[in-house]
């Protein structure tokens, strides 16, 4: 009998055509496409578990998943097989054999997300679906300063979705910074021990509201301490968000 193997898979995907990572009835999902490809490739149903599911429309540059299998196919053959079978919109970047106790979610020590904003009046056909177009004037210095106030360990209840099922709202935000990627594109980058449902999008939406004068400077920490989602800003659109890295 073949021993069970634990594999680490890294995926890149465009979130636009998907209803998120997790399998859902009558919906196209990243997990659904990958597991269908593995069924064809390996001949048996295989469960793939990711580092943390992404919502509908959210992109990933390096989503990590793990699977347990008795298949004897090489890692290279599995990668090539997945890429030959999955429809457009998702790509397997690598497959690697891991120790028996590796798990994409439970072994992770943190994640890095990037939220991109197109900050100009004119829309961009070339960046459509990859950025949040904000045509109002933004105070970039204020935006950078506001993000810098957020790091630390705290209860993030004010910045999560109403239906978030995470039992522990306390997370450590290690980094929250602004990068000017191009003259018109701003990137808010967040690194943390973990994130609540829609936390990054709500942080991004509120930070932009500070930068365009809808909240006073320092409002984000005040809102966090109040733990009331109604006090925070809008949830920024999914299209601007990319999971950049999972840390181990």
Report what the structure shows.
The protein is an alpha+beta fold and 248 residues long. It has 2 domains: 5-98, 2-Layer Sandwich (Alpha-Beta Plaits), CATH 3.30.70; 110-247, Pseudouridine synthase I, catalytic domain, C-terminal subdomain (Alpha-Beta Plaits), CATH 3.30.70.660. 22% of the residues lie in helices and 31% in strands. The protein is built from 5 helices and 10 strands, in the order βαββαβββαβββααβ. Strands 1, 2, 3, 4, 5, 6, 7, 8, 9 and 10 form a 10-stranded mixed β-sheet that branches. Strand 8 and strand 9 (185-192) form a beta hairpin.
**Share of residues in strands:** 25-35%
Mean model confidence by pLDDT: 96
Question: How many distinct beta strands?
Answer: 10
CATH fold category name of the largest domain: Alpha-Beta Plaits
Which secondary-structure class do the elements indicate?
Answer: alpha+beta
Name the CATH homologous superfamily of the largest domain: Pseudouridine synthase I, catalytic domain, C-terminal subdomain
- Helix-strand pattern, N to C? EHEEHEEEHEEEHHE
Cα shape: globular
Main sheet attributes: strand count, strand direction, barrel closure: 10 strands, mixed
CATH architecture of the largest domain: 2-Layer Sandwich
Give the CA-CA distance, first to last residue.
31 Å
Write down the Rg.
Answer: 19 Å
């Amino acid at each position: 009998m073949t021993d069970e193997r634990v594999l680490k898979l890294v995926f890149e995907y465009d979130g636009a055509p998907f209803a998120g990572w997790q399998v859902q009835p009558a919906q196209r999902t990243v997990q659904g496409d990958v597991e269908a490809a593995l069924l064809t490739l390996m001949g048996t149903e295989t469960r793939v578990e990711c580092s943390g599911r992404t919502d509908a429309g959210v992109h990933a540059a390096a989503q990590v998943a793990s699977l347990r299998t008795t298949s004897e196919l090489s890692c290279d053959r599995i990668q090539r097989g997945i890429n030959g079978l999955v429809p457009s919109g998702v790509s397997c970047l690598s497959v690697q054999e891991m120790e028996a106790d590796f798990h994409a979610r439970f072994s992770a020590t943190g994640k890095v997300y990037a939220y991109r904003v197109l900050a100009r009046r004119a829309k961009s056909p070339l960046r459509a679906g990859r950025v949040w177009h904000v045509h109002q004037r933004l105070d970039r210095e204020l935006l950078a300063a506001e993000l810098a106030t957020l790091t630390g360990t705290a209860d993030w209840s004010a910045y999560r979705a109403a239906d978030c099922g995470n039992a522990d709202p306390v997370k450590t935000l290690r980094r929250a910074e602004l990068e000017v990627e191009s003259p018109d594109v701003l990137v808010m980058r967040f690194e943390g021990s973990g994130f609540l449902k829609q936390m990054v999008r709500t942080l991004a939406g509120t930070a932009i509201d500070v930068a365009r004068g809808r909240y006073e400077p320092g409002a984000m920490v005040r809102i966090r301490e109040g733990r009331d989602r109604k006090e925070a800003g809008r949830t920024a659109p999914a299209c601007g968000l990319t999971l950049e890295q999972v840390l181990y």
